[in-house]
Write a structure and sequence with these properties.
The protein is an all-alpha fold. The chain has helices at about 5-10, 15-45, 50-65, 70-80, 80-100, 110-125, 130-140, 145-175, 180-195, 215-220, 235-240, 245-260, 265-275, 280-310, 315-330, 340-355, 360-370, 375-400, 405-420. It contains 19 helices and no strands. The chain starts with a helix and ends in a 16-residue tail after the last helix.
Length: about 425
């Protein structure tokens, strides 16, 4: 129930500051993540990396990302996101800066590749905590019927980071003439974010003095069980029996397998296998994220409207399934796009379809998980990360050995499978209600 001005006064707006913190973190996170993928095309020769090794590096990040998703989600649910985010962002920033150390090692050796592999694995282990913690933050701070648009804004911000990263890294390489300094500079972004966030943020609205009763009641609107209560263990038996949990996780695994191509191997595909210049490759790498900005917003807003119109059963699946079906059609045509403009358009349409599903997916994790939103979003993202690791290894090997067509056929099939999985996601069946599995 929306609080009235008489009973509670005009609601304060602290939740919007929380949203701003989450959005700025999403930007920094994707600058770190996509920045390395962009840098690979610049550093592969000095370090001596093959296509297969590049795929292995991307996979090392995604495997660690997947393995640590659920543990970080459980820790966020148990201890709150304030401390967890501080740890994961400072750790990830330190490991981003540590990439500079690799340039002092002898190139084209097992030692240099092994250390780079370990750094990427540890970076993935720390970054794994970011979005499960953000999901728990949104479950604690945002009303249910606004979560779709809020997740849309957050993922829009992540795509903004994806737009900025290639342009920023290419510019830093040219201005500084030293990739080591570029890595250190982008690492400092995470340190600055933590310095601003930790002293101010509190895990729950009732712990922040600036939140009045009107805003607290507004945040609780529409929930079957408040998330702002004592932390409880995840009901694993309910989660294992839940069709919605399985459908959500399998869907997001399909999305991770195909969508991760844009975060990892796209710059290598464009520069090495399509023979496109570094400046044009940077543009083609950034443009899909620009389309993703709009798609994330649209997916979030439309899914919230669908929640109001059709209820939680179909509110999230309608837009998510449509987006992944569009991505399946567009990515299938990429190998046959000879003109760079057509190639750019297909990349943008694919990523737009991919990102139409992002906000509904994370909003559905909060809807179904409620007080267990961190753990459930971690499970969902774990599936995506492990599938993405498989995709990076398989695609890297195929690019080097089996040609450039088959990987995109597999990407298309994965997107189409995900579109079907969406139909099993039911936001009205929450883990907080024993009879709703």
């Amino acid at each position: 129930m929306t609080p009235s001005a008489n009973s509670s006064g005009r609601p304060s707006k602290v939740r919007f500051l929380v949203l701003a913190a989450a959005c700025s973190l999403a930007v920094v996170t994707y600058i770190h993540r996509v920045g390395f993928a962009t840098a690979v095309s610049e550093i592969r020769e000095p370090i001596g990396l093959t296509d297969g090794q590049i795929g292995d590096l991307m996979a090392s990040f995604m495997v660690a990302y997947g393995l640590f998703e659920v543990p970080w989600g459980l820790l966020g649910d148990r201890f709150g996101v304030r401390s967890i985010l501080s740890i994961v962002i400072l750790g990830g920033s330190a490991l981003t800066g540590a990439l500079a150390l690799v340039f002092w090692l002898p190139p084209r050796t097992v030692l240099s590749f092994s250390i780079l592999f370990v750094l990427r694995f540890l970076f993935g282990a720390f970054q794994a905590g970011t979005f499960p913690a953000i999901s728990r933050m949104i479950a604690d701070w945002i009303p249910m019927d606004e979560r779709g648009r809020v997740q849309g804004v957050i993922w829009t911000s992540s795509r903004l980071g994806g737009v900025i990263a290639p342009i920023l890294l290419v510019w830093l390489f040219k201005v500084t003439g030293d990739p080591r300094l570029a890595f250190v500079l982008i690492a400092l972004l995470g340190v600055a974010w933590c310095a601003a966030f930790r002293p101010w943020f509190r895990n729950r609205p009732e712990d922040m003095a600036a939140v009045n009763e009107g805003e607290r009641l507004l945040i609780l609107r529409g929930r079957s069980a408040p998330t702002m209560t004592a932390h409880e263990a995840l009901p694993w038996s309910r989660a294992w029996r839940s069709r919605s949990v399985w459908s959500l996780c399998l869907m997001y695994g399909c999305l991770g397998y195909s969508g991760n191509f844009f975060l990892t191997l796209l710059p290598t595909y464009l520069a090495t296998h399509r023979g496109i210049s570094s400046e044009t490759s940077a543009t083609l790498t950034s443009l899909p994220f620009a389309f993703g900005i709009a798609a994330c917003l649209v997916g979030g807003v439309v899914s919230d409207r669908c929640i109001r119109r059709f209820g939680p059963r179909w509110g999230r699946p309608l837009i998510g399934s449509a987006g992944m079906a569009m991505a399946a059609a567009a990515i299938l045509a990429i190998p046959w796009a000879a003109d760079v403009r057509v190639l750019g358009l297909l990349l943008c349409l694919t990523f737009a379809g991919n990102d139409l599903a992002m906000a509904p997916a994370w909003a559905a994790a909060a809807d179904i998980g409620e007080k267990h939103a961190g753990a459930l979003s971690g499970m969902m993202n774990m599936m995506a990360s492990l599938a993405a690791a498989l995709g990076a290894v398989v695609t890297g090997r195929m690019f080097g050995e089996s040609g450039l067509t088959l990987p995109f056929i597999i990407f298309s099939a994965a997107y189409l499978t995900g579109a079907v999985c969406w139909l099993g996601v039911d936001g009205s069946r929450t883990l907080s209600s024993p009879d709703q599995v």
